[in-house]
Design a protein that fits this description.
- Helix 9 links the parallel strand 7 and strand 8.
- Helix 1 packs parallel to helix 3 and helix 3 packs across helix 4.
- This protein folds into two domains: about 60 residues, no CATH class; about 190 residues, Vaccinia Virus protein VP39 (Rossmann fold, 3-Layer(aba) Sandwich), CATH 3.40.50.
- It has nine helices and ten strands.
- The protein has a seven-stranded mixed sheet. A three-stranded antiparallel sheet has the order 3-5-4.
- About 35% of the residues are buried.
- By secondary structure, it is of the alpha/beta class.
- The termini are far apart.
- The radius of gyration is 19 Å and the shape is globular.
Length: about 280
């Protein structure tokens, strides 16, 4: 039986301090319980004896730090998660965003996503004939995460869920049109994201793009404490244009955040907000 190593609060803070001192990545305002749980998983998966072993590898091996960043970030596990959200994006948001203007609308998958959100949005745009009519941005915390997204590889165990979500989304084609099965490995059509601008961001979103009309930032705030929520939301608020949209997780809210007064609630079920114009 595998015994899971239990990381203490002091050890967790020591890991966070070592990362901050060595690389400048600040995890101090991540929700401590979920961060601690992921540290325990990383220690077990990589065969470290304890947190000190992890710290030693982190501080002496920059390549491993890229792997750590990839492993510490919670991954999306489904395509078209919450299908009603994607129907709203297709039927209401995109038609509004495409009105007028001589420049291509900028759309940003702002969550540290493992690719499913980005590919879902790209499929919608392709089915609407709009994939070449927008500028797509996607953020990641590590080069390793960007490489994985570009590879198009997703967990084959999630294929049934992905297919069911696409059916509930009521797409124009079959979900199987967008991937190939390579000896049991599911590989999404990478041409869908050929023109995507990838942005490597740190934990406080220091270098966000500007002039964005739609931001998908779903299911991220549960991993932040209130301080980091406000920091990141402030950056995102400055990124989205007046009249633009921000979608967060269905169980998340902008209430009681410092940016709540900048938005109106557009869709309560799917937690889509519209930025005020004044």
């Amino acid at each position: 039986m595998i015994i899971r190593y239990e990381v203490g609060i002091v050890e967790t803070r020591n890991v966070i301090k070592s990362i901050l001192d060595t690389y400048g990545y600040d995890f101090r305002d991540y929700a401590l319980t979920s961060f601690k749980r992921r540290l325990e998983q990383i220690i077990m998966n990589n065969g470290f004896k304890d947190a000190d072993g992890l710290i030693s590898r982190l501080t002496t091996n920059k390549d491993y730090f890229e792997t750590f960043l990839h492993e510490i970030t919670p991954e999306t596990t489904e395509m078209f998660r919450d299908p009603s959200l994607w129907r709203t994006v297709r039927d209401e948001l995109l038609p509004d965003l495409m009105k007028g203007g001589s420049t291509k609308p900028k759309l940003w998958v702002a969550a540290f996503d493992s690719g499913e959100e980005l590919y879902s949005l790209a499929i919608i745009l392709k089915e609407l004939g709009l994939l070449s009519e927008v500028q797509l941005y996607a953020s990641a915390i590590s080069d390793k995460a960007i490489e994985k997204i570009k590879s198009g590889r997703i967990d084959s165990k999630e294929l049934e869920v992905n297919d069911a979500n696409y059916l509930r989304f009521i797409g124009k084609r079959n979900f199987s049109d967008y991937y190939k099965n390579d000896n049991g490995q599911i590989i999404l059509d990478s041409s869908l994201i050929q023109g995507v601008n990838f942005i490597k961001l740190n934990t406080v979103y220091d270098n966000v793009p500007g002039g964005i009309k739609l931001i998908l930032f779903r299911n991220q705030m549960i991993y932040y404490n209130q301080i980091l929520q406000d920091k990141v939301l402030n950056q995102i608020t400055n990124s989205v244009v007046p009249g633009g949209y921000l979608a967060i997780g269905a169980k998340e809210t902008l209430e009681n955040t410092t940016t709540s007064t900048k938005f109106t609630l557009f869709n309560d079920l799917d937690k889509i907000y519209k930025k005020k114009t004044n």
